[in-house]
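USER: I would love a firmer grasp of how sequence relates to backbone shape in proteins. This is the protein in question:
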Amino acid sequence: MYNTSVATISKWKNREELQDKSSCPHQIAYALNEMEQALSVSIRKTTWLPLDEVWELLLFVQLFAPGMMIYNERH
């Protein structure tokens, strides 16, 4: 009648609420680590560069300093 599958009906029958749940992720998986995120936000706020140029700058930094540690947790 409504073109719903048996799996969909059983999913809705087992819910406590009748409101539809959000389909967006609750936890976003970032491609950047915390240091890279902070660096990109800092560059963006201070230079007002477009995001694609900030991304290219981060790639440039990683290309020439792949093992560089900006922050050392021991100190």
